[in-house]
Design brief:
heterodimer; A: 113 residues; mainly beta; six-stranded mixed sheet; 11 strands; globular
């Protein structure tokens, strides 16, 4: 089955700096890679996703890159703000797997003002 | 955007009782819903896949008689934790897949239900 590794487990950045979270996956059939932000006591919220037919996607301060050959994808947050503090999860899936998401272990991001 | 609602958002119960958690897709139909549990400071662990009109598919190690799942309509799935014990205390989260979604993904998550068993 699919296995997703996520690093780092914790990340502390100064407000205004960039944050980068990296994930690797094992199953080359995976073709959909979402990123979720989870605030304390709440469910995960989709913040950005990327499909295997593109290498990069950007939405304002958030961007995701995908390297299919190396089987890794990354989340980039620029100009971080205190409200970006949360736990971020990457995930991977493909349709033949019934859309079952395999999650990374999560990254706790703290943006210091 | 698509909204998934869970109820209750938190529940406290006595050991040995059963607790039902509802997951509703409010503005779309969902043929498939997924149930996860999340322990403190850990990732989401898939428990089962709930399919409308058929039996749920459970992940390895998840007791189907302990965690009863019913997906009676295209907008509602329920998870019942039977004879709950303190070790069942966790954050339970559902997600729903838009019916007819052609590609992988398009999953929307509920806000979660925190279960505390005394």
């Amino acid at each position: 089955g699919e296995n997703v590794e996520q690093h780092p487990s914790t990340l502390s950045v100064q407000e205004g700096d960039s944050a980068v979270i990296k994930c690797t996956y094992s199953d080359s059939a995976s073709n959909y890679f979402p990123w979720y932000k989870q605030e304390l006591g709440k469910g995960p919220q989709l913040i950005i996703d990327i499909r295997s037919n593109v290498g990069e996607k950007k939405d304002q301060r958030i961007a995701v890159t995908l390297n299919k050959t190396a089987k890794h994808f990354s989340l980039h947050i620029t100009e971080t703000q205190p409200e970006d503090s949360a736990v971020y999860f990457c995930a991977a899936t493909f349709k033949a797997a019934g859309n079952k998401l395999t999650f990374g272990g999560g990254t706790r991001v703290l943006v210091k003002p | 955007g698509a909204v998934v609602s869970q109820h209750p958002s938190w529940v406290i119960c006595k050991s040995g009782t059963s607790v039902k958690i509802e997951c509703r897709s409010l503005d779309f139909q969902a043929t498939t819903m997924f149930w996860y549990r999340q322990f403190p400071k850990q990732s989401l662990m898939l428990m089962a896949t709930s399919n409308e009109g058929s039996k749920a598919t459970y992940e390895q190690g998840v007791e189907k008689d302990k965690f009863l799942i019913n997906h009676a309509s295209l907008t509602l799935s329920t998870l019942t934790v039977t004879s709950a014990h303190p070790e069942d205390s966790s954050f339970y989260i559902c997600s729903a897949r838009v019916a007819g979604a052609l590609q992988a993904g398009e999953l929307f998550f509920g806000e979660g239900s925190r279960l505390t068993v005394l």
